[in-house]
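Reviewers of the previous submission asked for a worked example of the structure-prediction workflow described in the proposal, so we include one complete record here. The input consisted solely of the amino acid sequence. No template or homolog information was supplied to the procedure at any stage.
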Amino acid sequence: MKTIGLIGGTSWVSTVEYYRVINKQINKRLGGLNSAKILLYSQNQEEHKPPSDEAGWIEQAGFLIGISRQLEDAGAECILLCANTPHMIADKLQLGIHVPLIHIADATAREILKFGLKRVALLGTKVTMEQSFYRDRLAKFGIAALTPDQGERDFIDTTIFSELDKEIFKDETRKKYLAIIERLKGDGAEGVIFGCTEIPLLIKQSDCTIPAFDTTTIHALAAAEFALGD
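From that input alone, the workflow returned the following C-alpha cells.
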C-alpha cells in the first residue's frame, strides 16, 4: 500500500471527511483492521485564505510546495490538496515535487464522464467559479461548466467562509443553494459539481434533481485507489 500525503485544514471540516472516506474505502477493499497510510499536514486556514491577487497566489504556491516537499521527504507517494480552490496553483505545485498530485478536477471529470454528461453547473468559492483554472481542466475532458450569476456567486462564497467552514449548516442556506442549482438546470446544466469540499456536508444527492458530484468523496476515493494500485 502506498502512503498518501494530505494537505488539509482548508477547512478542517472537510479534511475530517477525507480521512474518513479514504480509510473506509481501504478497509472495504482489504478488510480486517486495514486502514490507510496517511501523512497529514493541517494548515491554519485563517493564515492562508484564498488570495485575491496574483502575488498572493505566487506566495501560496511557494507555501504549498514547501509543505508538499515535507510530506514527500516523510514518505508520501502522492499529494492531495484537500480543497478545490488551491488547485488554482496545482500545475506549479506539480512542477515543484517528484510525486503525483492527484488533481480534484481530473478525478471529478472522470466521474462525470461515467454519467455521459457534457454540461454541468459548478458551485464553489468565487475563485473557483470566476477564474478559468477549473473550467479549463474540465474542458480537457470535453465538459462545459456553467456558473451562477454574480449575486449567487457572492452568496455562495460568503456562506462558505461564514458558515460551512465553521461547521454551520442552515436550512435556509441549503434551500438557496438548491434554488441556484434548479435555475442552472433550467439553463442546461445536466449535473452539478459541489466544487467546494464543504458543500457536500450541506447538500446531498437526495436533495437534488440532477446528478450531484461530491468532490470530497470523489477525490478521497481517487487517493484510496492510488494507494492500492500497482
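The first strand starts at residue 3 and ends at 8. We consider this example representative of the routine output the project will generate in years two and three.
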